[in-house]
């Protein structure tokens, strides 16, 4: 019974959740690059769909396509609900 539950959960994650998440990541990357262009300067933007402020402190390395020092703050009811930091993030 546990095996069936785990298998169904895996199928759900792989077939339903992951593709939507990957599409959303690509949309956010395109929005950031369109808004700011290729730059090594800091930039930020607000994602209304997830209510998140995304701040890239050290900009984008245009040769490698790497965002440097990325801070994401997600809000719920106008209060910080979730915080995420990544030293490097691939575009």
Helix percentage: 25-40%
In total, the number of strands is: 5
**Averaged pLDDT:** 78
Residues in β-strands, percent: 35-45%
Distance between termini? 40 Å
Number of folding domains? 1
What summary fits the major beta sheet? 5 strands, antiparallel
Topology order in helix (H) and strand (E) letters: HEEEEE
Treating each run of at least 4 consecutive H or I residues as one helix, how many helices? 1
Shape assignment: globular
Topology:
Blueprint: H1 2-36, E1 43-47, E2 52-56, E3 60-61, E4 66-76, E5 79-90
Antiparallel strand pairs: 1-2, 2-4, 3-4, 4-5
Task: Please describe what this structure looks like.
With 91 residues, the chain is an alpha+beta fold. It has one domain (2-90). Helix content is 38%, strand content 38%. The chain has one helix and five strands. It is globular and about 55 Å long.
Keywords:
about 90 residues; 1 helix
Brief summary:
This protein is 38% helix and 38% strand. It is of the alpha+beta class and 91 residues long. The protein has one domain (2-90).
